[in-house]
Automatic annotation (TrEMBL), chain A:
Matches recorded under SMART domains: AAA
Protein name: Peptide/nickel transport system ATP-binding protein/oligopeptide transport system ATP-binding protein
The organism of origin for this protein: Lacicoccus qingdaonensis
Origin: domain of life: Bacteria
One Pfam family this sequence matches: oligo_HPY
NCBIfam families noted in UniProt: oligo_HPY, PRK11308.1
Automatic annotation (TrEMBL), chain B:
Source organism: Lacicoccus qingdaonensis
InterPro entries named in the record: AAA+_ATPase (IPR003593), ABC_Ni/Peptide_Import (IPR050388), ABC_transporter-like_ATP-bd (IPR003439), ABC_transporter-like_CS (IPR017871), Oligopep_ABC_C (IPR013563), P-loop_NTPase (IPR027417)
Annotated GO MF terms: ATP binding; ATP hydrolysis activity
Residue stretches making up the ABC transporter domain: 6-256
Domain of life: Bacteria
Keywords: ATP-binding, Cell inner membrane, Cell membrane, Membrane, Nucleotide-binding, Translocase, Transport
CC per GO annotation: plasma membrane
Membrane topology: Peripheral membrane protein
Keyword ATP-binding assigned: yes
Name of the featured protein: Peptide/nickel transport system ATP-binding protein
Gene Ontology biological-process entries: peptide transport
Family: Belongs to the ABC transporter superfamily.
Subcellular location per the Swiss-Prot or TrEMBL entry: Cell membrane
Length: 363, 337
């Protein structure tokens, strides 16, 4: 069964200028998202994962044009939405909605649930005026809120309930695509499970498509069909959920997966420790952006930018990776150049390297 | 069981607001065996952080410890005078907080803040203090410590700040470290480093740790014993393997079933229904009864924390002779995994 492509992102770049100097000119750019391409099929759930500062939230915002992208194209059902004018874009937003992370900050505290939901319908003009209250009640029920709560204000609800209101608001305009930006991160696990189940049920019933932005890989494995792993503004690996989790190919993905604590005391995972912190996106490393922290990096990685492509020929599904040595590492032909299993050793190496490079500068 | 470094018994800490009493910690009992790690796990509002603050007597007005005992190496901390508490804090018992940005003072350098504890607890001067500070920074794996020691917190990344916090907490080689969500604000790769580091330093100086967290993964990786808290009470107290293999309390089981796992495939999550009750609507009996799938008539009375045949403890009527409901299998491993 081939499904239609709902969203197609090509060569998307999002640079934020840094103003400075005498005339307040742009002196540099924060390259938050730097040339990424992917697509989402109808009814699919695609997750974007990565650590803070990797550009995952920026990607979501750029697609909705909440921040105007610097370069690239975004096609929604074949229509280039970056060329739409303000009015057309506003109409377009009834097709694509976003749910934010913080259920406390993303609702207007002075509006009741009813006002919030009806406002969304007013702006998009999707439901005849007379039926809006009826529709609001219907959505309340869909997301698991009580009908009698419709005249309450956000402060009268708990965190989980507020997130349901956020979902209800997104659903009010009958969207096709929902971008969920860390939509369950702020919730306790028992409530998080309720909201995740709700999102899955809505997808089944209404045929929704999700772009899920998250850092919790447990949540991501549970909900996604496909996964995009980002590091410092670039996609390093992209593929089917099962393949990403069972056969990660990029050293960064491997480190990321190994770092998650396993909730099973008898089955502790072997850690891969990374040296250093994520470099600044203002002046990202040349070549492969991960080379400064990668235990497998060579001279080639410092100069040549790896292309995101399908490398594992044995796997028939989608699984692309941007690493020069992905297959060599997997088949044991390319070995790590420094330790990555012993935290003390990793930190000491890093320390040594830092002082060595400092001496270089002095000379 | 080996000797305990900390015994907390029936601890009650309440907040008095607008003439009413909010019982944040409501009769909590746990102990920390010497050299071991006790995890305190629970969702927001379960009282885990307030329990920790109570141990160090850091609960501020309108909060107050109203009952119970906290015995540290046999010394009763609830009765200790303030000067004695000041001696203990940072020296014998140390604490790491969740937010490394707000727990460091932004207008002092890392070195100045580290030296302070050496000055107070060991009377070291500036020179000797700086030397020790650099040693501590090295111990927690901060690159080029002699340069970092003169930097301000804003010049460090989040992971480094948390390592500075750990360096400060460990400066005087405490016997007990209380870590309150030490890695919650950090990315997973940095979290892995920090947790490993705490574990390593624990072995090096032989300290005991109280690890407060909401993350069951962190519990499984770092703790020897676990206290599960719900609404101000400990509902289950067990060694870590039993807790994950054979959880007894329906709340613990609920937590495990609602957890999305990255290490295995699951069909559907089984959430706990409803919400945590508001402090002013706390049920009289078992706090978990309104959300419990097994709740029966007897659950309107409060069960005690009772020791089971394997030495672990659970607060639930199902495990008592008085149980009046049907026979139930609280944890079904086949179904859950």
């Amino acid at each position: 069964m081939t499904k239609n492509t709902l969203l197609e992102v090509k060569g998307l770049k999002q640079y934020f200028p840094i103003k400075g100097g005498f005339l307040g000119r742009t002196v540099n750019n924060v390259k938050a998202v730097d040339d990424i391409s992917f697509d989402i099929k109808e009814g699919e759930t695609v997750s974007v994962v990565g650590e803070s500062g990797c550009g995952k939230s920026t990607t979501g915002r750029a697609i909705l044009r909440l921040d105007e992208p610097t370069e690239g194209t975004v096609n929604f059902e074949g229509k280039d939405i970056l060329s739409l004018n303000k009015k057309e874009m506003r109409d377009m937003r009834s097709e694509m909605q976003i749910i934010f992370q913080d259920p406390f900050a993303s609702l207007n505290p002075r509006k009741t649930v009813k006002m919030t939901l009806i406002e969304a319908m007013d702006i998009q003009n999707v439901v005849p005026k007379k039926e809006r209250t009826e529709r609001a009640l219907e959505i309340m029920e869909t997301v698991g809120l009580q009908k009698h709560q419709i005249d309450r204000f956000p402060h009268e609800f708990s965190g989980g309930q507020r997130q349901r209101i956020g979902i209800a608001r997104a659903l009010a305009v009958n969207p096709k695509l929902i971008i969920a930006d860390e939509a369950v991160s702020a919730l306790d696990v028992s409530i998080q499970a309720q909201v995740l189940n709700l999102l899955q049920r809505l997808q089944r019933e209404m045929g929704l498509t999700y772009l899920f932005i998250a850092h919790d890989l447990g949540v991501v494995r549970h909900i996604s069909d496909r996964i995009i792993v980002m590091y410092l503004g670039k996609i390093v690996e992209m593929g089917d959920t099962k393949s990403i989790f069972e056969n990660p190919q990029h050293p960064y993905t491997k480190a990321l997966l190994s770092a998650i604590p396993v909730p099973d005391p008898k089955n502790k995972s072997e850690r891969i420790f990374l040296r250093g912190d994520v470099p600044s996106p203002i002046d990202p490393p040349t070549g492969c952006r991960f080379h400064t922290r990668c235990p497998f990096a060579t001279e080639k990685c410092k100069t040549e930018i790896p292309v995101l492509e399908h490398k594992d020929e044995t796997y028939a599904g989608q699984h692309d990776v941007a690493c020069h040595y992905a297959i060599d590492i997997q088949e044991g032909r390319h070995k790590a150049t420094h330790d990555m299993k012993n935290v003390r050793k990793v930190l000491d190496d890093e320390s040594e390297e830092a002082s060595a490079s400092k001496e270089d500068v002095k000379q | 069981m080996s000797e305990n470094i900390l015994d907390v018994n029936n601890l009650k800490t309440s907040f008095f607001v607008d003439g009413s009493e909010i019982k944040a910690v409501d009769g909590v009992t746990f102990n920390v065996p010497k050299g071991k790690t006790l995890g305190i796990v629970g969702e927001s509002g379960s009282g885990k952080s307030i329990s920790a603050l109570s141990i160090l007597r850091l609960v501020e007005d309108p909060g107050k410890i109203v009952d119970g005992s906290i015995s540290f190496k046999g010394e009763e901390l609830t009765a200790a005078k303030e000067p004695r508490m000041r001696q203990i804090r940072g020296n014998e018992i140390s604490m790491i907080f969740q937010e490394p940005m707000t727990s460091l003072n932004p207008v002092y350098t890392v070195g100045q803040q580290l030296r302070e504890s050496f000055k107070i607890h060991e009377g070291l001067g500036k020179k000797a203090g700086t030397k020790r500070s650099i040693e501590m920074l090295e111990l927690v794996g901060i690159p080029s410590p002699e340069k970092r020691v003169d930097q301000y917190p804003y010049e460090l990344s989040g992971g480094m700040r948390q390592r500075v916090m750990i360096a400060m907490a460990l400066a005087c080689k405490p016997e007990l470290l209380i870590a309150d969500e030490p890695t919650t604000a950090l990315d997973v790769t940095i979290q892995a480093q920090i947790l490993e580091l705490i574990k390593e330093l624990q072995e090096e100086i032989g300290m005991s740790v109280v690890m407060i967290t909401h993350d069951l993964g962190v519990v499984a990786e770092t703790c020897d014993y676990v206290a599960v808290m719900y609404c101000g009470k400990v509902v289950e107290l067990a060694d870590v393997e039993t807790l994950f293999e054979n959880p007894r309390h329906p709340y613990t089981v609920g937590l495990l079933n609602s957890l999305p796992r990255h290490d295995q495939d699951q069909d559907e999550l089984v959430p706990i229904k409803g919400n945590v009750p508001a402090p002013d609507e706390m049920p009289e009996g078992c706090r978990f009864a309104p959300r419990c799938p097994f709740a029966s008539d007897i659950c309107s009375k409060l069960p005690e924390l009772e020791t089971q045949e394997d030495g672990n403890e659970v607060r639930c009527w199902i495990y008592t002779d008085e149980w009046d409901g049907e026979e139930v299998k609280v944890y079904d491993k086949e179904h859950s995994s």
